[in-house]
Amino acid sequence: MKYLFEVRIKEGHTVEEYAHAWVRASELIQQHPGARGTELRRKIGEPNTLLAIASWDSKADRDAMEAQHSQKIDEIIRSAAPFVGVTPIGEFEEPEWVVKPD
């Protein structure tokens, strides 16, 4: 599973501020069963817009983490909330098959 979010950094703040919070929260989240990594990518031409990607073995694993994650994760997320806007893009299953040109 992939969970995708668009993150927009508000004026007066930096991508690095958000990345610091993202890493701290991700380190805790990645301790949960089924967590398979996270990454941030900058949008071309819009350096204050990021694509956040979280990978999981299954939706059930991520839902379980959401239902029982620690207060520390909540604190980190709340600390970053004032300087970002986060828009969920969607939840995507890993493809059963991939078509690639020869």
Model description:
- Keywords: Monooxygenase, Oxidoreductase.
- Helix content is 34%, strand content 36%.
- With 102 residues, the protein is of the alpha+beta class.
- The chain has one domain: Alpha-Beta Plaits.
- The chain has a four-stranded antiparallel sheet with strand order 2-3-1-4.
- Strand 2 and strand 3 form a beta hairpin.
- Helix 1 packs antiparallel against helix 3.
- It is flat and about 45 Å long.
- 15% of the residues are buried.
Detail the topology: elements first, then pairings.
Layout: E1 2-9, H1 15-29, E2 35-43, E3 46-56, H2 59-68, H3 71-80, E4 84-92
Antiparallel strand pairs: 1-3, 1-4, 2-3
Helix pairs in contact: 1-3
| Distance between the first and last residues' Cα | 26 Å
The backbone outline, from C-alpha atoms, is flat
Q: How many strands, what sense, and barrel or not for the largest sheet?
A: 4 strands, antiparallel
What is the C-alpha radius of gyration, as a whole number of Å? Answer: 15 Å
In what range is the share of β-strand residues? Answer: 35-45%
Helix content: 25-40%
**In CATH terms, what is the architecture?**
2-Layer Sandwich
CATH-assigned fold name:
Alpha-Beta Plaits
Uncertain residue segments: none
Number of H/I helices: 3
Protein name: Antibiotic biosynthesis monooxygenase
Keywords: Monooxygenase, Oxidoreductase
Pfam families: ABM (PF03992)
Domain ABM: 5-64
